């Protein structure tokens, strides 16, 4: 039989027995006579009372445990804590206990669900509270259920103006009121809003304030749930009277938060104790109870009667040796006070925070922290950290030094795994990485760390054996894919002599090796007279490039010098005295050039003089006779020609003077045009710079628009999540679902606007780039114009200088004509004297001409016999053409021959 059935039957049995005794006593008293009957009646009634008492005691004993459980569950239920009553008896009270437990679990489940819904709604609310759009939400009856912070600020700023038309308007109490308060004709507005199928924009005037309203209906499955209204203050002002409402909401949230904090304190790991103003302990959470229980033995060394489980209701003075001092300190406390409390071998850190001002003190909150193990670990950690810092500092200095040295350093552990390479070695390997991979395909500079040093060797076993037995410095060279590498390996030992690894210093000797071979090759060729070999400079840099250039220059200079000398000597051996060393040389080669050219010049001069003398003599001998006959006539004609020539030269002088002045003016104009063109080029360069700056700014704006687009997208996602969460909340989240929908619409509109702005910016960037390209082309054209004007200026300068030289030359010609006139007068007297010498020299001249005809004195062989021409105009014609010769060193033989011939002839005539 169940316990529940036994209690009921027991109660029935007791009641039946007591009733039977009472009935029996009544019968005895009624039927009996005398004192005995009354005595037995009283006895029967007393027995009935005893039966009732015993039965009641038995039932109460059986119901005591479930009643205690019921009371404990009620206390936990009132405190918001889960209850654990233990085994539950199967009776009426046990059923009540189970029902109460189920009720508590259901209430807790609903509370948690409501808390989650509240947090979701609060997140949406916080999102709307921080947007700059003025948002108001009303239900289907046009009662305001939400206004965000932005619209509150706007209405507070305009409250005084609004009250001129709406005397009872209060921006702080809008929630709960009907939107009809803003309209003079609510019926018209309700009719308009009732038939609203989409967004509706309107403008209202309230007092001196004008608002623009954008109304969106909120519907769900065809049922109108409310409206969302976006406000815009067209008078650029915001409301000022939402502070009180915000404060009330904040206080309500604070009260709710305090309740959550109290429930949270019960489950947090922070050790919290709360006392009243008289320092009596009124609250301790589970965490501090467990902490004090763990340290109870240590605390009892100084406080023998300490009991962690019986602290509630006791005074906090029990922890202090001098309570009066602590009370005075706590009485004047205005801020959190931190203190260290040493009890036994335990150390506690106390953070005491007063509740209320000193004159309105409500109590104290004390946060306990067991610092015993923490202080011990901190001391141990500090010592360990100190040693590690010292070691780390040493290692850091060594590593920094290795990272910054120019030597190529690698370190490997005892298994020859690479554990360190410095930047210099990494750079060296990176420059040869492609070549090394031709023989070692797996080689990679970026993946060397952790790899084994065997990657550099075709025979790793030999290298491992050598490095494993290494006790001292080891030098070696290897060749990989044409790269020559040298390394110096040193073993690393600790203080106990244990092998820790190997440090290797690498060097790339490819350039040295190749340079040595190339130098040996060209030196060997030079020793055999081959100066055409050169060192290839491709791929070289620094010292090796300078060395290669120096050797190549040396070979080039030597080859050029010897080739030039050989060429001149070869021409001399053939009788050709027209060749000269034209190239420029320094030092010994320069001296060889000067000496060789001087030798050829001296020899050519001697031969020229001989040839000129022989030609002159031969010509004189053969022509003197014929010349003497018509010399008189030609002398007269020459005098007449000289007069005409003098007149022409005067006109020419005037013309050249005018040309010189015109050339000078043209030169000045060209220089002015050059300066103007240069200024124009500078302006175009500034325009180019400005266009590039505009292009860069346009790109930056494009990037900013991209960020705005991304923000709009994220806002859309957040609004979608909020709508989903609001949908889960059911009826309670319907209003926030509407808000989330409108936020999504705003995000889409923002994204669309950002996209359009981005497209405009992209078009602007393209246009700016085209303009920048056109300006670049204009700058290049202007530069070409500046260069062309500079060339014109240079040419005009040369023309001006040439005109000045022409004027000077014509003046000299005038002087020469005057001198020729004098000489012509003398020639008439000398004609007869020349005839006598002609016959005596003619025979000797023929012999001398035959001797010097073997030498070539000019590139034009026909010029060798120029003096044999019987023309008196030849010397004058030769002098006029001489200044036009471009290369005087090569073409000067004609002029030299004519001048020498004239000088020698004049001297001969005078001597004769």
TrEMBL record:
InterPro entries attached to this UniProt entry: HAMP_dom (IPR003660), MCP_chemotaxis (IPR051310), MCPsignal_dom (IPR004089), PAS (IPR000014), PAS-like_dom_sf (IPR035965)
Chain segments annotated as coiled-coil in the UniProt record: 377-404
GO molecular function terms noted in the UniProt entry: transmembrane signaling receptor activity
A GO CC annotation given for this chain: plasma membrane
Domain HAMP: 556-608
Residue ranges of the region described as Disordered: 887-912
Name recorded for this polypeptide: Chemotaxis protein
């Amino acid at each position: 039989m169940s316990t529940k059935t036994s209690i009921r039957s027991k109660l029935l049995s007791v009641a039946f027995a007591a009733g039977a005794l009472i009935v029996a006593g009544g019968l005895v008293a009624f039927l009996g006579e005398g004192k005995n009957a009354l005595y037995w009646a009283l006895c029967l009634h007393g027995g009935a009372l005893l039966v009732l008492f015993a039965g009641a005691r038995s039932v109460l004993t059986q119901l005591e445990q479930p009643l205690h459980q019921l009371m404990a569950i009620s206390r936990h239920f009132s405190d918001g804590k889960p209850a654990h009553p233990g085994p539950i008896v199967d009776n009426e009270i046990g059923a009540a206990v189970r029902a109460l437990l189920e009720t508590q679990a259901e209430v807790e489940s609903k509370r948690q669900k409501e808390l989650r819904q509240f947090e979701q709604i609060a997140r949406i609310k916080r999102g709307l509270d921080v947007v700059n759009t003025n948002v108001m939400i009303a239900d289907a009856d046009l009662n305001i259920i939400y206004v965000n912070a932005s619209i509150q600020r706007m209405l507070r700023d305009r409250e005084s103006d609004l009250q001129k038309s709406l005397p009872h308007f209060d921006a702080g109490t809008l929630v709960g009121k009907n939107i009809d308060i803003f309209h003079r004709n609510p019926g018209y507005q309700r009719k308009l809003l009732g038939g609203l199928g989409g967004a509706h924009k309107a403008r209202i005037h309230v007092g001196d304030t004008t608002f623009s309203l954008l109304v969106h209906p909120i519907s769900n499955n065809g049922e109108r749930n409310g409206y969302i209204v976006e406000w815009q203050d067209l008078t650029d002002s915001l409301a000022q009277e939402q502070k009180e409402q915000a404060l009330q909401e904040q206080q309500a949230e604070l009260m709710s938060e305090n309740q959550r904090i109290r429930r949270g304190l019960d489950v947090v790991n922070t050790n919290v104790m709360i006392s009243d103003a008289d320092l009596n302990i009124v609250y301790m959470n589970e965490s501090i109870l467990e902490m004090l229980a763990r340290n109870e033995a240590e605390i009892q060394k100084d406080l023998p009667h300490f009991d962690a489980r019986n602290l509630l209701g006791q005074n906090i003075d029990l922890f202090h040796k001098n309570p009066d001092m602590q009370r005075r300190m706590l009485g004047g406390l205005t801020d959190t006070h931190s203190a260290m409390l040493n009890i036994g071998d335990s150390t506690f850190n106390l953070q005491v925070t007063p509740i209320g001002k000193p004159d309105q003190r409500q109590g104290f909150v004390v946060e306990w922290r067991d610092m015993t193990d923490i202080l011990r670990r901190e001391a141990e950690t500090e010592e360990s950290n100190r040693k590690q810092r010292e070691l780390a500092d040493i290692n850091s200095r060594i590593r920094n030094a290795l990272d910054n040295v120019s030597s190529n350093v690698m370190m490997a552990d005892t298994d020859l795994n690479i554990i360190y390479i410095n930047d210099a070695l990494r750079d060296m390997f990176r420059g040869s990485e492609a070549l090394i991979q031709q023989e070692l395909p797996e080689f990679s500079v970026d993946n060397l760390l952790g790899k084994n040093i065997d990657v550099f060797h075709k025979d790793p076993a030999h290298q491992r054996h050598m490095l494993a037995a290494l006790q001292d410095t080891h030098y070696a060279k290897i060749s990989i894919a044409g790269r020559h590498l040298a390394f110096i390996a040193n073993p690393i030992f600790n203080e106990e002599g244990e092998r820790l690894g190997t440090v290797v210093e690498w060097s790339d000797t490819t350039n040295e090796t190749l340079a040595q071979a190339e130098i040996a090759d060209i030196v060997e060729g030079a020793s055999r007279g081959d100066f055409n070999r050169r060192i290839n400079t491709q791929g070289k840099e620094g010292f090796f490039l300078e060395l290669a250039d120096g050797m190549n220059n040396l070979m080039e200079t030597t080859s050029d010098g010897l080739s030039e000398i050989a060429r001149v000597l070869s021409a001399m051996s053939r009788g050709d005295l027209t060749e000269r060393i034209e190239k420029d040389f320094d030092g010994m080669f320069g001296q060889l050039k000067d000496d060789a050219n001087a030798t050829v010049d001296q020899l050519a001069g001697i031969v020229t003089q001989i040839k000129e003398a022989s030609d002159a003599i031969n010509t004189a001998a053969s022509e003197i006779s014929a010349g003497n006959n018509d010399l008189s006539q030609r002398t007269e004609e020459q005098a007449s020609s000289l007069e005409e020539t003098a007149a022409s030269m005067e006109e020419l002088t005037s013309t050249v003077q005018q040309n010189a002045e015109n050339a000078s003016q043209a030169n000045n104009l060209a220089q002015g045009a050059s300066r103007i063109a240069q200024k124009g080029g500078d302006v175009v360069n500034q325009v180019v710079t400005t266009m590039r700056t505009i292009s860069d700014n346009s790109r930056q704006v494009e990037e900013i628009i991209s960020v705005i687009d991304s923000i709009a997208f994220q806002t859309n996602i957040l609004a979608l999540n909020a709508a989903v969460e609001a949908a889960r909340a059911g009826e309670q989240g319907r209003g926030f679902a509407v808000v989330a929908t409108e936020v999504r619409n705003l995000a889409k509109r923002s994204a669309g606007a950002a996209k359009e702005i981005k497209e405009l910016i992209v078009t602007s960037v393209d246009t700016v780039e085209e303009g920048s390209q056109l300006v670049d082309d204009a700058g290049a054209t202007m530069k070409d114009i500046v260069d062309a004007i500079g060339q014109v200026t240079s040419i005009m300068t040369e023309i001006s200088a040439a005109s000045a030289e022409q004027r000077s030359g014509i003046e000299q010609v005038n002087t020469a004509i005057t001198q020729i006139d004098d000489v012509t007068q003398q020639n008439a007297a000398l004609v007869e004297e020349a005839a006598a010498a002609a016959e005596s020299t003619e025979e000797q001249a023929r012999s001398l001409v035959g001797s010097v005809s073997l030498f070539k004195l000019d590139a034009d062989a026909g010029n060798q016999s120029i003096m044999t021409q019987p023309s008196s105009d030849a010397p004058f014609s030769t002098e006029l053409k001489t200044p036009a010769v471009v290369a005087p060193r090569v073409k000067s033989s004609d002029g030299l021959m004519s001048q020498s011939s004239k000088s020698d002839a004049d001297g001969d005539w005078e001597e004769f």
